[in-house]
Write a structure and sequence with these properties.
Layout (H helix, E strand, L loop, with lengths): L7 E2 L16 H10 L4 E3 L6 H7 L3 E3 L2 E4 L2 E15 L2 E11 L2 H12 L11 E2 L3 H11 L4 E4 L19 H5 L1
Parallel strand pairs: 1-2, 2-5, 5-7
Antiparallel strand pairs: 3-4, 4-5, 5-6, 6-8
Length: 171
């Protein structure tokens, strides 16, 4: 690894996501990131109210959160289940926010669309196109990334989502 390189995992979860370990707390995330040679993690699950409260206890400097000296970028995953082109679509997206202030704006908007307190990866009936458009409206620095792109049930190119290209997904 070169001096200017960072090995990161930005698609993670907290203990508040279904099918995830109850040991996924900040201490253990940092412990295992260091063991595995990672220098940066996504926070995962910033849409979950309880996890967000824990994240807000961290020190924030220029949009990076720090647990002791270990950096985190604000990240979350969302499950979008909707109809488009006459068929059901199921897509997971990872999204990155530039600050806790922006996270609060995202969560306020999501609260107008449904609940986010039951899972770290909440489900909403919003199209990918509409979700990305709203994120751009909230803050142009929000990044949206297709999650696990090939998986059958929730990947944008999965057999259950049925998209053939990203233009079809996002317009």
């Amino acid at each position: 690894m070169r001096d200017n390189e960072i090995i990161a995992d930005l698609h993670i979860h907290s203990r508040f996501s279904r099918a995830c370990s109850k040991d996924l707390n900040l201490f253990n995330l940092v412990k295992w990131a260091k063991i595995k040679g990672l220098g940066l993690l996504g926070t995962g699950d910033f849409t979950h109210p309880q996890w967000l409260e824990e994240l807000k206890e961290l020190k924030e400097k220029k949009g990076i959160l720090y647990y002791e000296d270990f950096p985190f970028i604000l990240s979350s995953e969302i499950s979008l289940v909707y109809s488009q082109g006459g068929r059901g679509r199921r897509v997971h997206l990872v999204f990155l926010a530039p600050s806790l202030e922006v996270v609060d704006k995202i969560n306020a908007w999501l609260d107008t669309k449904g609940r986010r307190d039951y899972d770290g990866r909440p489900i909403f009936k919003i199209s990918c196109r509409d979700f990305v458009a709203k994120m751009e409206e909230i803050d142009e620095l929000i990044e949206v990334i297709p999650a696990h792109i090939w998986t059958p049930y929730f990947g944008v190119f999965g057999s259950k989502s049925g998209f053939d290209n990203l233009v079809e997904v996002f317009g």
